[in-house]
Amino acid sequence: MQLIPIMINGLPGNVAKMIVSHVLRDSRFALVPFSLTGPEIQEAAVEVAGTSIQLVRPDVRAARIGDIKKQCPGLISVDYTHPTAVNGNCEFYCAHGLPFVMGTTGGDRDRLDPAVRASSICAVIAPNMAKQVVGFQAMLAHAADTFPGLFAGYTMTVRESHQKGKADTSGTARAVVHSFNRLGVHFSEDQIEMIRDPEVQKREWGIPEEHLGGHGWHTYTLTSPDRTVTFEFKHNINGRDIYADGTLDAVVFLHQKVARGEKGTVFSMIDVLTGGCS
Protein backbone atom coordinates (compact mmCIF):
# COMPACT_ATOMS: atom_id res chain seq x y z
CA MET A 1 0.00 0.00 0.00
CA GLN A 2 1.30 3.45 -0.93
CA LEU A 3 1.80 5.58 2.14
CA ILE A 4 0.14 8.99 2.30
CA PRO A 5 2.69 11.79 2.85
CA ILE A 6 1.41 14.06 5.60
CA MET A 7 2.86 17.39 6.75
CA ILE A 8 1.74 18.54 10.21
CA ASN A 9 1.90 22.32 10.44
CA GLY A 10 1.93 24.12 13.77
CA LEU A 11 4.93 22.59 15.48
CA PRO A 12 6.18 22.99 18.15
CA GLY A 13 2.58 23.39 19.36
CA ASN A 14 1.10 20.73 21.62
CA VAL A 15 -1.73 19.65 19.33
CA ALA A 16 0.60 19.37 16.35
CA LYS A 17 3.02 17.29 18.43
CA MET A 18 0.20 14.97 19.46
CA ILE A 19 -0.90 14.51 15.84
CA VAL A 20 2.70 13.77 14.81
CA SER A 21 2.98 11.07 17.49
CA HIS A 22 -0.14 9.39 16.11
CA VAL A 23 1.11 9.64 12.51
CA LEU A 24 4.37 7.95 13.48
CA ARG A 25 2.40 4.98 14.86
CA ASP A 26 0.02 4.70 11.91
CA SER A 27 1.05 2.46 9.00
CA ARG A 28 -1.07 4.43 6.52
CA PHE A 29 1.15 7.51 6.58
CA ALA A 30 4.65 8.78 5.90
CA LEU A 31 5.49 11.83 8.00
CA VAL A 32 6.90 14.74 6.00
CA PRO A 33 9.92 15.96 8.02
CA PHE A 34 8.95 19.63 7.70
CA SER A 35 6.39 21.80 9.49
CA LEU A 36 5.21 25.32 8.73
CA THR A 37 5.54 27.35 11.92
CA GLY A 38 4.97 30.87 13.21
CA PRO A 39 7.15 33.96 12.88
CA GLU A 40 7.90 33.97 16.61
CA ILE A 41 9.48 30.50 16.59
CA GLN A 42 13.27 30.61 16.79
CA GLU A 43 14.06 26.89 16.76
CA ALA A 44 15.25 25.39 13.47
CA ALA A 45 13.86 21.93 14.26
CA VAL A 46 11.87 20.01 16.84
CA GLU A 47 12.06 16.38 17.86
CA VAL A 48 8.93 14.30 18.43
CA ALA A 49 9.21 10.66 19.52
CA GLY A 50 12.78 10.52 18.27
CA THR A 51 11.99 12.04 14.87
CA SER A 52 13.48 15.40 13.87
CA ILE A 53 11.24 17.79 11.96
CA GLN A 54 12.51 21.00 10.37
CA LEU A 55 10.53 24.15 11.14
CA VAL A 56 9.76 26.44 8.21
CA ARG A 57 9.04 30.07 9.10
CA PRO A 58 6.65 32.29 7.09
CA ASP A 59 9.47 34.40 5.65
CA VAL A 60 11.06 31.41 3.88
CA ARG A 61 8.16 29.03 3.25
CA ALA A 62 7.39 30.27 -0.27
CA ALA A 63 11.00 29.68 -1.28
CA ARG A 64 11.15 26.21 0.28
CA ILE A 65 7.78 24.68 -0.48
CA GLY A 66 8.71 23.68 -4.02
CA ASP A 67 11.58 21.49 -2.83
CA ILE A 68 9.40 20.02 -0.07
CA LYS A 69 6.76 19.04 -2.63
CA LYS A 70 9.43 17.45 -4.84
CA GLN A 71 10.73 15.39 -1.92
CA CYS A 72 7.22 14.38 -0.83
CA PRO A 73 4.92 14.30 -3.88
CA GLY A 74 1.22 14.13 -3.14
CA LEU A 75 1.55 15.44 0.40
CA ILE A 76 -1.50 16.42 2.43
CA SER A 77 -1.10 19.35 4.85
CA VAL A 78 -2.69 19.33 8.30
CA ASP A 79 -3.06 22.72 9.97
CA TYR A 80 -2.99 23.07 13.77
CA THR A 81 -1.41 26.49 13.97
CA HIS A 82 -2.98 29.66 15.42
CA PRO A 83 -6.24 31.53 14.76
CA THR A 84 -4.33 34.54 13.44
CA ALA A 85 -2.63 32.34 10.83
CA VAL A 86 -5.72 30.58 9.49
CA ASN A 87 -6.48 32.76 6.47
CA GLY A 88 -2.88 33.34 5.47
CA ASN A 89 -2.17 29.63 5.64
CA CYS A 90 -5.28 28.81 3.62
CA GLU A 91 -4.19 31.26 0.92
CA PHE A 92 -0.70 29.75 0.95
CA TYR A 93 -2.03 26.20 0.55
CA CYS A 94 -4.30 27.29 -2.31
CA ALA A 95 -1.56 29.21 -4.09
CA HIS A 96 0.93 26.34 -3.89
CA GLY A 97 -1.37 23.42 -4.68
CA LEU A 98 -1.42 21.88 -1.20
CA PRO A 99 -4.63 20.01 -0.29
CA PHE A 100 -5.19 20.55 3.42
CA VAL A 101 -7.11 19.61 6.54
CA MET A 102 -7.82 22.71 8.62
CA GLY A 103 -8.09 21.78 12.29
CA THR A 104 -7.25 25.28 13.52
CA THR A 105 -10.23 27.33 14.66
CA GLY A 106 -10.67 31.09 14.39
CA GLY A 107 -9.77 33.44 11.59
CA ASP A 108 -12.30 34.78 9.09
CA ARG A 109 -14.16 31.57 8.30
CA ASP A 110 -16.22 33.24 5.58
CA ARG A 111 -13.05 33.68 3.49
CA LEU A 112 -11.94 30.05 3.64
CA ASP A 113 -14.50 28.37 1.40
CA PRO A 114 -14.26 30.91 -1.47
CA ALA A 115 -10.46 30.69 -1.43
CA VAL A 116 -10.52 26.91 -1.84
CA ARG A 117 -13.29 26.96 -4.45
CA ALA A 118 -11.27 29.38 -6.57
CA SER A 119 -8.19 27.16 -6.38
CA SER A 120 -6.95 23.89 -7.89
CA ILE A 121 -7.10 22.00 -4.57
CA CYS A 122 -9.69 20.61 -2.20
CA ALA A 123 -9.76 20.73 1.59
CA VAL A 124 -11.46 19.49 4.74
CA ILE A 125 -12.36 22.41 7.00
CA ALA A 126 -14.09 21.84 10.33
CA PRO A 127 -14.32 23.52 13.75
CA ASN A 128 -13.86 20.17 15.48
CA MET A 129 -12.11 16.99 14.41
CA ALA A 130 -13.43 14.77 17.21
CA LYS A 131 -15.76 12.37 15.41
CA GLN A 132 -18.16 11.89 18.32
CA VAL A 133 -18.53 15.65 18.84
CA VAL A 134 -19.07 16.07 15.09
CA GLY A 135 -21.81 13.44 15.33
CA PHE A 136 -23.44 15.43 18.14
CA GLN A 137 -23.30 18.56 15.99
CA ALA A 138 -24.85 16.64 13.09
CA MET A 139 -27.72 15.46 15.31
CA LEU A 140 -28.47 19.04 16.32
CA ALA A 141 -28.28 20.21 12.71
CA HIS A 142 -30.70 17.45 11.71
CA ALA A 143 -33.07 18.48 14.51
CA ALA A 144 -32.90 22.09 13.34
CA ASP A 145 -33.74 21.03 9.78
CA THR A 146 -36.58 18.76 10.92
CA PHE A 147 -38.05 20.76 13.82
CA PRO A 148 -37.30 24.46 13.21
CA GLY A 149 -38.43 26.63 16.11
CA LEU A 150 -38.75 23.68 18.49
CA PHE A 151 -37.16 25.62 21.37
CA ALA A 152 -38.76 28.99 20.61
CA GLY A 153 -39.05 31.06 23.77
CA TYR A 154 -36.37 29.12 25.63
CA THR A 155 -33.39 30.94 27.08
CA MET A 156 -29.90 29.48 26.86
CA THR A 157 -26.52 29.69 28.52
CA VAL A 158 -23.34 28.34 26.95
CA ARG A 159 -20.14 27.84 28.94
CA GLU A 160 -16.97 26.46 27.38
CA SER A 161 -13.65 25.83 29.09
CA HIS A 162 -10.37 25.27 27.27
CA GLN A 163 -6.70 25.48 28.14
CA LYS A 164 -5.33 28.94 28.89
CA GLY A 165 -3.50 29.18 25.56
CA LYS A 166 -6.62 28.83 23.38
CA ALA A 167 -7.05 32.32 21.98
CA ASP A 168 -10.51 32.17 20.40
CA THR A 169 -14.04 31.15 21.30
CA SER A 170 -14.68 27.48 20.60
CA GLY A 171 -15.68 26.87 17.00
CA THR A 172 -17.73 23.90 18.19
CA ALA A 173 -19.69 26.11 20.57
CA ARG A 174 -20.36 28.58 17.78
CA ALA A 175 -21.61 25.79 15.49
CA VAL A 176 -23.90 24.42 18.20
CA VAL A 177 -25.27 27.90 18.89
CA HIS A 178 -26.10 28.24 15.19
CA SER A 179 -28.17 25.04 15.33
CA PHE A 180 -30.03 26.23 18.43
CA ASN A 181 -30.70 29.54 16.68
CA ARG A 182 -32.47 27.58 13.95
CA LEU A 183 -34.33 25.70 16.68
CA GLY A 184 -35.79 29.02 17.79
CA VAL A 185 -33.41 30.15 20.54
CA HIS A 186 -32.32 33.79 20.52
CA PHE A 187 -28.66 33.67 21.50
CA SER A 188 -25.59 35.32 19.99
CA GLU A 189 -22.05 34.04 19.82
CA ASP A 190 -20.77 36.89 21.97
CA GLN A 191 -22.89 35.53 24.85
CA ILE A 192 -20.77 32.36 25.01
CA GLU A 193 -18.90 32.33 28.32
CA MET A 194 -15.23 31.48 27.77
CA ILE A 195 -13.32 30.05 30.74
CA ARG A 196 -9.53 30.16 30.44
CA ASP A 197 -8.42 30.61 34.07
CA PRO A 198 -6.86 27.37 35.36
CA GLU A 199 -7.79 28.17 38.97
CA VAL A 200 -11.45 28.63 38.06
CA GLN A 201 -11.34 25.49 35.92
CA LYS A 202 -9.96 23.43 38.77
CA ARG A 203 -11.93 24.95 41.64
CA GLU A 204 -15.35 25.61 40.09
CA TRP A 205 -15.48 23.13 37.20
CA GLY A 206 -13.62 20.21 38.74
CA ILE A 207 -11.38 19.73 35.72
CA PRO A 208 -8.55 17.33 36.62
CA GLU A 209 -5.30 19.17 37.20
CA GLU A 210 -3.40 16.97 34.75
CA HIS A 211 -5.75 18.12 31.96
CA LEU A 212 -5.78 21.86 32.64
CA GLY A 213 -3.25 22.27 29.83
CA GLY A 214 -5.42 20.42 27.29
CA HIS A 215 -9.19 19.98 27.56
CA GLY A 216 -12.52 21.06 26.09
CA TRP A 217 -15.56 21.13 28.41
CA HIS A 218 -18.85 22.48 27.04
CA THR A 219 -22.25 22.86 28.68
CA TYR A 220 -25.38 24.12 26.87
CA THR A 221 -28.37 24.77 29.15
CA LEU A 222 -31.85 25.63 27.86
CA THR A 223 -34.68 26.80 30.12
CA SER A 224 -38.38 27.13 29.30
CA PRO A 225 -40.11 30.52 29.53
CA ASP A 226 -41.80 29.60 32.83
CA ARG A 227 -38.56 28.00 34.11
CA THR A 228 -40.26 24.66 34.81
CA VAL A 229 -38.29 22.74 32.17
CA THR A 230 -34.52 22.52 31.71
CA PHE A 231 -32.51 20.73 29.03
CA GLU A 232 -28.77 20.36 29.39
CA PHE A 233 -26.30 19.10 26.78
CA LYS A 234 -22.73 18.49 27.83
CA HIS A 235 -19.52 17.12 26.31
CA ASN A 236 -16.30 17.09 28.33
CA ILE A 237 -13.01 16.11 26.72
CA ASN A 238 -9.81 15.62 28.69
CA GLY A 239 -6.61 15.61 26.66
CA ARG A 240 -6.28 15.86 22.90
CA ASP A 241 -6.08 12.29 21.61
CA ILE A 242 -9.74 12.27 20.53
CA TYR A 243 -8.87 14.79 17.79
CA ALA A 244 -6.22 12.58 16.20
CA ASP A 245 -8.51 9.85 14.87
CA GLY A 246 -10.80 12.30 13.13
CA THR A 247 -7.89 14.29 11.72
CA LEU A 248 -6.24 11.23 10.22
CA ASP A 249 -9.54 9.95 8.82
CA ALA A 250 -9.92 13.37 7.19
CA VAL A 251 -6.47 13.00 5.61
CA VAL A 252 -7.38 9.59 4.14
CA PHE A 253 -10.70 10.98 2.87
CA LEU A 254 -8.96 13.97 1.27
CA HIS A 255 -6.27 11.78 -0.28
CA GLN A 256 -8.99 9.71 -1.95
CA LYS A 257 -10.71 12.83 -3.29
CA VAL A 258 -7.43 14.19 -4.68
CA ALA A 259 -6.73 10.84 -6.37
CA ARG A 260 -10.10 11.10 -8.10
CA GLY A 261 -9.26 14.55 -9.44
CA GLU A 262 -11.44 16.58 -7.09
CA LYS A 263 -10.65 20.31 -7.23
CA GLY A 264 -12.08 23.48 -5.74
CA THR A 265 -14.21 21.65 -3.19
CA VAL A 266 -14.55 22.17 0.56
CA PHE A 267 -15.54 19.16 2.64
CA SER A 268 -16.70 19.02 6.24
CA MET A 269 -16.16 16.40 8.91
CA ILE A 270 -19.73 15.27 8.22
CA ASP A 271 -18.54 14.39 4.72
CA VAL A 272 -15.63 12.47 6.25
CA LEU A 273 -17.91 10.52 8.60
CA THR A 274 -20.35 9.61 5.84
CA GLY A 275 -17.48 8.87 3.45
CA GLY A 276 -16.52 5.69 5.30
CA CYS A 277 -12.83 6.47 5.94
CA SER A 278 -12.75 5.35 9.58
TrEMBL record:
Pathway, per record: Amino-acid biosynthesis; L-lysine biosynthesis via DAP pathway; (S)-tetrahydrodipicolinate from L-aspartate: step 4/4
Q: For this protein, what reaction is catalysed? A: (S)-2,3,4,5-tetrahydrodipicolinate + NAD(+) + H2O = (2S,4S)-4-hydroxy-2,3,4,5-tetrahydrodipicolinate + NADH + H(+); (S)-2,3,4,5-tetrahydrodipicolinate + NADP(+) + H2O = (2S,4S)-4-hydroxy-2,3,4,5-tetrahydrodipicolinate + NADPH + H(+)
Question: What's the short name of a Pfam family annotated to this entry?
Answer: DapB_C
Q: Name one GO molecular function term.
A: NADPH binding
- BP terms from Gene Ontology: diaminopimelate biosynthetic process; lysine biosynthetic process via diaminopimelate
For this protein, the Enzyme Commission number is 1.17.1.8
Per UniProt, the enzyme's principal EC class comes to: oxidoreductase
The segment(s) forming the Dihydrodipicolinate reductase C-terminal domain are 136-273
Looking at the keywords, is GTP-binding present?
Answer: no
Q: Enumerate the UniProt keywords alphabetically.
A: Amino-acid biosynthesis, Diaminopimelate biosynthesis, Lysine biosynthesis, NAD, NADP, Oxidoreductase
Cross-referenced PANTHER family: 4-HYDROXY-TETRAHYDRODIPICOLINATE REDUCTASE 1, CHLOROPLASTIC-RELATED (PTHR20836:SF0), DIHYDRODIPICOLINATE REDUCTASE (PTHR20836)
Query: What protein am I looking at?
Result: 4-hydroxy-tetrahydrodipicolinate reductase
Per the UniProt entry, what species is this protein from, by scientific name? Desulfosudis oleivorans (strain DSM 6200 / JCM 39069 / Hxd3)
Q: What is the lineage of its organism?
A: Bacteria, Pseudomonadati, Thermodesulfobacteriota, Desulfobacteria, Desulfobacterales
